[in-house]
Amino acid sequence: MNGPPGGRPHSSHWGAFHAAHDADGLRVRPDPADPEPSPLLDNLPGFTRARVTRPHVRRGWLTGGPGPDTARGTDDFVPVDWAEVVPLLAGELDRVRTVHGNRAIFGGSYGWGSAGRFHHAQSQVHRFLNALGGYTRSVNTYSLGASRPLLRHVVGSDAPIAEPTTYPVLAEHTGLFVCFGGMPAKNAQVNAGGVSRHGAAGYLRAARARGARFVLVSPLRDDLADDLDAEWLAPEPGTDTALMLALAHVLLTEDRHDEGFLARHVTGFDAFRGYVLGHTDHVPKTPDWAAAICGIPAARIASLAREMAATRTMISLSWSLQRAHRGEQPLWAGVALAALLGQIGLPGGGFGHGYGATAGTGAGVLPYRLPTLPQGINPVPDFIPVARIADLLLNPGGRCDYDGQRLTYPDIRLVYWSGGNPFHHHQDLARLRRAFTRPDTVVVHEPYWTATARHADIVLPATTTLEREDIGGAKEDPVLIAMHRIAEPQGQARDDYAIFAALAAELGVAEEFTRGRTARQWLAHLYESWRAGLAPEHAPAEDFAAFWPAGRVPLRGRRERHTLYAAFRADPDAHPLPTPSGRIELFSRTIDSFGYDDCPGHPAWLPQDPPDPAFPLHLIANNPATRLHSQLDHGPHSAAAKIEGREPLRMHPADVAAFGLRPGEVIRVRSAVGSCLAAVVPSDGLRRGVVQLATGAWFDPSAPQAATCVHGNPNALTADVGTSRLAQGCTGQLARVTVERLTAPPPPVRAHGPA
Ligand SMILES: Nc1nc2c(c(=O)[nH]1)N[C@H]1C(S)=C(S)[C@@H](COP(=O)(O)OP(=O)(O)OC[C@H]3O[C@@H](n4cnc5c(=O)[nH]c(N)nc54)[C@H](O)[C@@H]3O)O[C@H]1N2
Ligand SMILES: Nc1nc2c(c(=O)[nH]1)N[C@H]1C(S)=C(S)[C@@H](COP(=O)(O)OP(=O)(O)OC[C@H]3O[C@@H](n4cnc5c(=O)[nH]c(N)nc54)[C@H](O)[C@@H]3O)O[C@H]1N2
Ligand SMILES: [Mo]
């Protein structure tokens, strides 16, 4: 028996656990050291369902060969053997790189895949494609598409994301949390790479017990835990920038801003002040002005600004704020507001970006890297901002503005996806379907018959982590976990590594890809070379032979008490920020020089599309409480929240009545882009006029006459446009919709069934 009784050690993005698998199914026991294990663990027993159990090739591709095909996504699949599919795919990869060049291969393959340092699907696919001569890649993420490019200009790096002030410091020092977009407990269940101790909620409770106050600024009340007794201010979605500018207006006109901090630590204050006071555009950003936009009373805006100036205040800016049209602005305005308060660099003050977004944000990070599979070198210079995938496929040779550059889209002939689900993560899925008809060949490695697998030509069955061995760890977590095999591979599923190794052998690059190592030898190699490179005070005493049966080793040196920008505050000349000015840039000459009207040189409230009476409701398409993205949507915990198999749409009871709907009824939600079905759940935890439909229900276009998606995937409704020309980030968080009753019984959901 390996590991403690009750199963073997393993890990996931939502928690560490022990598990055993036998004829009765999967039994999962959360890590005993975890103070608040995530109920997402309850989805794991779903891992045997909806599986791809052998390689499949789309019939039209098998008979007609590679080429654009509108049947992609509706055609049927032919099961084939590994011995047949490996040379077939190797031949196609070779054809594309020889005839069209490596830039014709899109290998960005964005997605979270699974926890585990070696079988990390992105590292595997990138390493493989680099061994073949490279690929067109993607930059940035759907999580933080606007943030990273913007923060590089404003504070010079992504330190607010990577190393925010840690929770123990907040729990001790913060007097007032003003949380734009909340700090949702549902999201802190998850951490990229894993989390063995869920601590965020406990630290916030400790702050509350000490007397800290919480103000939640969000259209949804459950974006902050009930036990924090928060005041709930529910703005119109997408209007936080106006609210922040009005808070700044109060600080400036009442002389509550910190002149000393602004003089020493900030550049561009004059430009920002002139804009806020209305000197440049004759529109003073007063509380009355903002109240008309965001719906929060002017008097409360004014009093909140005074409270913020009088207290040690943490301005918490959620990641969701920037996943929207012009999403750069609320983040930049939030930084500007914090700069005016002058508490940046003080314990518990300033701003944070992403508290509650993941378990790791604020937990403190290790000062060294974890074992990582090297990806090799990609000699192809072409890239896209990640959310421009449909544009790329639809417009070969087309142009795209991005962060001062003008990119040209390569002519993509082959798309390779492993560890991601674009038919989960991308917007306007009907348009993505059209985009996926354009390449010659689409290859997908998947454990499950996701919509992405169904839109491929070649589908290769991948193992889940439960069926293989790996090393689990994250830079915010205190242990490295030996992820033991829990179950045998389903059907003919193979590890991504084994699939790529077979293709590499066929293509003559086996040595480059595998270095002659088995998967187990790679684990030992990655562990030992990592351990050898660590400082003695950090290096684990255990060698691999001791680590593996022990199931875990401690990771030492995590910076648990850290204050963002403390050194910069103390001496901005000795510790300048990596911006052109060395200061926080409230006006950026660089951004200004790009001449983008959708992202000017300072934070601004940019004109919005006028409300369309045909789509009177704001849709919030946020990250789901009951699963990670689309993963294990067929698992018991996710399934339990559905109604008649449809995703729940939360709606204010007054809106339910106004639209003449019944609780639990399956209805159609429609936007200018498409429609989906969903089940009505009344809730007074939303602002009126706002509806909420989480992401992650598997896209099911099986009955196009009823709706673009009959299951409830909100990306059937969201628009495929970038945040701005600066960052081109994902804008999937918000959409304008309407709801309507069905005139016929809803068609069945087939998303989790066989292909
Ligand atoms: N409308 C809207 N859309 C959004 C968002 C939003 O707020 N609103 N949020 C966005 C955000 S922040 C993100 S990060 C994205 C998430 O988008 P994704 O990361 O693409 O979503 P996942 O469901 O995690 O997809 C991972 C896929 O990898 C597969 N997989 C798991 N392990 C392995 C493996 O070992 N090998 C292989 N080959 N496959 C594996 C899983 O089965 C799953 O299909 O979605 C974005 N989309
Ligand atoms: N359980 C679970 N946890 C997750 C994930 C998951 O899929 N499931 N995904 C993980 C990933 S990849 C990421 S990137 C993070 C995402 O972290 P976030 O992007 O912060 O998470 P979301 O849930 O999309 O949005 C948080 C909240 O923002 C609020 N909001 C939306 N629009 C506005 C607005 O205009 N103004 C204001 N003030 N508030 C608004 C919504 O009510 C929403 O619930 O979550 C991570 N954690
Ligand atoms: Mo994300």
Automatic annotation (TrEMBL):
Keyword presence, Oxidoreductase: yes
Molybdopterin dinucleotide-binding domain mapped to chain residues: 617-729
Signal peptide: none
Occurrences of domain Molybdopterin oxidoreductase N-terminal (ranges): 10-48
Region (Disordered): 25-46
Entry-linked PROSITE patterns: MOLYBDOPTERIN_PROK_2
CDD domains hit by this protein: MopB_CT_DMSOR-BSOR-TMAOR (cd02793)
Pfam families listed in its UniProt record: Molybdopterin, Molybdopterin_N, Molydop_binding
Segments forming domain Molybdopterin oxidoreductase: 51-505
Keywords linked to the UniProt accession: Metal-binding, Molybdenum, Oxidoreductase, Periplasm
Requisite cofactors: Mo-bis(molybdopterin guanine dinucleotide)
Protein's UniProt keywords contain Metal-binding: yes
Top-level taxonomic group: Bacteria
Protein family per UniProt: Belongs to the prokaryotic molybdopterin-containing oxidoreductase family.
Protein name: Molybdopterin-dependent oxidoreductase
Organism: Streptomyces johnsoniae
